[in-house]
TrEMBL record:
It comes from Punctularia strigosozonata (strain HHB-11173) (White-rot fungus). It holds the Pfam family Trm112p. This is Trm112p-domain-containing protein. Interacts with TRM9. One of its GO terms (biological process) is tRNA methylation. CDD domains: Trm112-like (cd21089).
Length: 124
């Protein structure tokens, strides 16, 4: 499933595409589903330092969710963590694509699964 926790870890890996290849941009998204997930504030506190915040906020906004602030607050209170939980773990992109901002390679998403495979000439 393409959740924003996964999206935040993906970059384009086409041969020679080594700059401006993150974050991938959502395109032609036709199906977004919200699925409840168990809330675990300890997991979120531990995972947040690994999150590329601007990429997460941008991806959420591409999917019409503007609940996250431009920058994380100094105090990680429960209200903030619940917003992060929702964006990272409950928003699922079922149909659409992710596009590299540099080389414009398209990674299709079908039935919630991103196709990150490359043709042989694209592997580097």
């Amino acid at each position: 499933m393409v959740r924003l926790i996964t999206h935040n870890l993906l970059a384009c890996h086409v041969k020679g595409c080594t700059t401006n290849n993150f974050p991938l941009v959502f395109q032609d998204v036709s199906d977004v589903v919200v699925r409840e997930a168990d809330y675990n504030p300890d997991f979120l506190r531990g995972f947040l330092p690994r999150v590329e915040w601007q990429a997460l906020v941008g991806a959420a906004r591409q999917l019409n969710d503007a609940s996250l602030p431009e920058a994380p607050p100094d105090q990680l209170d429960d209200d903030f963590l619940k917003k992060v939980h929702h964006v990272l773990l409950e928003i699922h992109v079922e149909e659409g694509a992710m596009v590299c901002p540099n080389c414009k390679h398209v990674y299709p998403i079908s039935n919630g699964i991103p196709n990150m495979l490359l043709a042989e000439h694209e592997i580097g």
